[in-house]
Amino acid sequence: MTFYLYALLILFSQQLSARDIWTPEQAWTWFNAQKPYIMGTELTVSSAANQLEMWQAETFDADLIDKEISYGSKLGFTVFRIFLHDLVYFKDPTGFKSRMNTVLNSLEKYGMKALFVFFDSENPDTNPTLGQQPKPLPAKCDSVYAYTPNMTILNDPSKHEILKPYIIDVVGTFANDSRVLAWDVYNEPGFSGSDNRNPAQDILLQLVFEWARSANPTQPLTSPVMFNTPALPIQTNNSDVISVHIYTDVAKFEKLIKTCQQYQRPIIVTEFLARGPISSYFSNILPLGKQYNVGMIAWGHVVGKTEWNMPWDSWNKGVSYVEYPPTVWFQDIFRQDGEPYLREEAQIVKRLNGCPLGYHSKVNNWTCYNAYDTPKSWADVQAACQSDWSYPVTINNAFENSDVK
């Protein structure tokens, strides 16, 4: 009874009219104000196998989250895309939002923002529960991922309203919070990895947009567009900015970006990076994102219990990477000690993010700008840049990068 009274207070405390969907002009004003460039990764702490393990009070690890956020700051990241879960909220709304605030404080400390994701129901056979989570299967990507909402609620549109307080309360609490970049209301609605579509997802998708907008957020709403599905018009008619997932090579990446440009709104690629045969790398895809002026968020951060370094085919029968791991990581960027999986990737990301890596002072001293505030000797800067995956560069007195030396 206490929770339902709490929920009623939330609903009645909201303004009676929702804000309008942004015009393209409003969306571009917001996008152009995001300085520096929108670039980052998905964040699930390495000690968590899914969102429940990340957000439940019993397993929430604020220190480790802060530490792993700091790794991204060294590459110049400005955003982390972070999945939430309704089950944790409904158990303890106040505690859940407090933990969200803890994460936002860490992000702010390192000059980053959050792009929060509410729902993700790709797998129709999954009904996660609170409490201790199953042990991940060895060498299997996302073996205990916690889809949301529960299929019992999703499949019955008459029960969708149960989720309304969750959306309105969370968005309303952080509606004016500059630490939040945007709200991804529904991840890949309608995608199940098979030909079986669930029309109830489209019904919920429309409702979630309406609920989130009723909380009058100052941040944009979005949902990654699903081409050739009934979800597409719902997404494009309700999104303030266009988001899209592109796991392809260069040619197909460009084609999809040009398709998204027809909506005349800013674009954020909220998932990319699939090393190996798919050929989605930082080296070939990230420069295109910069070229087309779209935000870029890679999938994976620190290798851990989610095992995103394992490819999608790790789920296929007859495929086992236990004894013979793949020759390259499929996703993820950092080892747990903070060392990049590939230093050359780290250097590419830093340069494309405009990180100043060093400067040349009037007295001919060098420094690795990301490591020191005062000039150091050439030997010191070489050591500093090596530990920070940087190249020594000269920067003039206006702190403008010159060519790498």
UniProtKB/TrEMBL annotation:
Highest taxon of the lineage: Eukaryota
Gene3D superfamilies in the cross-refs: Glycosidases, Mannose-Binding Protein A, subunit A
Residues of the signal peptide: 1-18
Alphabetical UniProt keywords: Signal
Record bears the keyword NADP: no
CDD domains (alphabetical): CLECT
The keyword Signal belongs to this UniProt entry's keyword annotation: yes
Protein name: Uncharacterized protein
Species annotation: Acrobeloides nanus
